[in-house]
From TrEMBL:
N(1)-(5-phospho-beta-D-ribosyl)glycinamide binds at G32, S33, N34. Its EC number is 2.1.2.2. This is Phosphoribosylglycinamide formyltransferase. NCBIfam families: PurN. It catalyses: N(1)-(5-phospho-beta-D-ribosyl)glycinamide + (6R)-10-formyltetrahydrofolate = N(2)-formyl-N(1)-(5-phospho-beta-D-ribosyl)glycinamide + (6S)-5,6,7,8-tetrahydrofolate + H(+). The active site is at H129 (proton donor). One of its GO terms (molecular function) is phosphoribosylglycinamide formyltransferase activity. Belongs to the GART family. PANTHER family: PHOSPHORIBOSYLGLYCINAMIDE FORMYLTRANSFERASE (PTHR43369). Pathway: Purine metabolism; IMP biosynthesis via de novo pathway; N(2)-formyl-N(1)-(5-phospho-D-ribosyl)glycinamide from N(1)-(5-phospho-D-ribosyl)glycinamide (10-formyl THF route): step 1/1. (6R)-10-formyltetrahydrofolate binds at R85, M110, R111, I112, L113, N127.
Length: 246
């Protein structure tokens, strides 16, 4: 196994010592499919903590319904009610800190965060991005990957820093790009991998295994390479029961 490969047979072998439940706040803007993956993991005692609140800047976000259906505090904090980005982030900080989280998880939160906000939660805020970072930071990642004719695409869990999609990467999952893939089919494959690896990364953080040390992500005290740990296409497909011939 190379420094960037990650073997799927170790995904569920670590058993932490029992401890008080760690607290998670999730920020969303839309449907919340990654939120649902985290809720499902929590329901199977595989998250390593408890989602205590879901906050959305869009009051009609379907993810808020997912939270309410799961008995989680659902908070709408519309950004349009604030005069500036800084004012909104100040209010958001207050709402988050009311829940005393150990970790803030961005799950499709479509806001550029102010330095004030990032630095307030630096080292305890994760995001998931639909590309193999540092490739394709920003938007329209699937269309850009198809336009470039890449053989492999995927997703990345990373710590949030002031650089947009530029924080240290913790975990990635690859998907092989098929010749007949469309933007929609590729997005579906990548999203399946997002739902696979995000709960794992969250659990590792809550167990104290995954940390931000300076400018590097570390796992069990060992600095990770710039692309973090990477789950291969074959291993991800096995975990997801995908047809490798497809």
């Amino acid at each position: 196994m190379s420094g960037t490969d990650y073997q799927s047979d170790t995904l569920n072998t670590f058993t932490p010592e029992p401890s008080e439940a760690r607290r998670v706040v999730v920020l969303i803007s839309g449907s919340g499919s990654n939120l649902q993956a985290l809720i499902d993991a929590q329901g199977h005692d595989e998250l390593g903590g408890e989602i205590v609140a879901v906050i959305s800047n869009q009051p009609d976000a379907y993810g808020l319904k997912r939270a309410r259906d799961a008995g989680i505090d659902a908070v709408a904090l519309p950004h349009r009610e604030y005069d500036s980005r800084d004012a909104y982030d100040g209010a958001l900080i207050k709402v988050i800190e009311r829940h005393e989280p150990d970790l803030i998880v961005l799950a499709g939160f479509m806001r550029i965060l102010t330095p004030r906000f990032v630095n307030r939660f630096l080292g305890r805020m994760l995001n998931i991005h639909p590309s193999l970072l540092p490739d394709y930071q920003g938007l329209h990642t699937h269309a850009r990957a198809l336009a470039d004719g890449v053989a492999a695409h995927g997703c990345s869990v990373h710590f949030v820093t002031e650089e947009l999609d530029g924080g240290p990467v913790a975990l990635q999952a690859e998907v092989a790009v098929a010749e007949d893939d469309s933007e929609e089919s590729l997005q579906a494959k990548v999203q399946a991998r997002e739902h696979l690896i995000y709960p794992i990364a969250v659990r590792w953080f809550l167990e104290g295994r995954l940390q931000l040390k300076g400018d590097s992500a570390t796992m069990d005290g060992v600095a990770l390479p710039p692309t973090g740990m990477r789950l291969s296409h074959a291993d991800a497909a096995e975990e997801l029961d995908e047809d490798l011939e497809g």
